[in-house]
Design goal:
Layout (H helix, E strand, L loop, with lengths): L5 H8 L5 E10 L4 E5 L5 E5 L8 E5 L2 E5 L11
Antiparallel strand pairs: 1-2, 1-4, 2-3, 4-5
Length: 78
C-alpha cells in the first residue's frame, strides 16, 4: 500500500545515494570492475567498465553510472 504521508512521498522522489566524480585508472573487463581514484587520492574498486581509462566518471553506490565532463574543480570555504 502506498503511503499518504506527503513528506515520505516527497523523499521518494529524490535520488538516493551519494554521487561523486573519480578518474578511472584501470579496467578489468573480465570481472566487470574498474579501479578509480577519488579527489583525495584514494583508489577504490567499483562495478562497471563503461568509461575508458583516464576519463572521469560518476560513481554512485559503488557503481559507475556514466562519464563525467572534464571540468575544473574548486573548493570554496565559507
Amino acid at each position: 500500500m502506498a503511503t499518504v504521508n506527503p513528506w515520505k512521498r516527497f523523499i521518494g522522489l529524490l535520488p538516493g545515494g551519494v554521487r561523486t566524480v573519480a578518474i578511472v585508472r584501470s579496467i578489468d573487463t573480465m570481472a566487470g570492475i574498474s579501479t578509480v581514484e577519488l579527489r583525495t587520492g584514494t583508489r577504490i574498486a567499483v562495478r562497471g567498465v563503461d568509461v575508458p581509462s583516464g576519463s572521469k566518471a560518476y560513481i554512485a553506490d559503488g557503481t559507475i553510472t556514466g562519464p563525467a565532463p572534464n571540468l575544473p574543480h574548486y573548493d570554496v570555504d565559507v
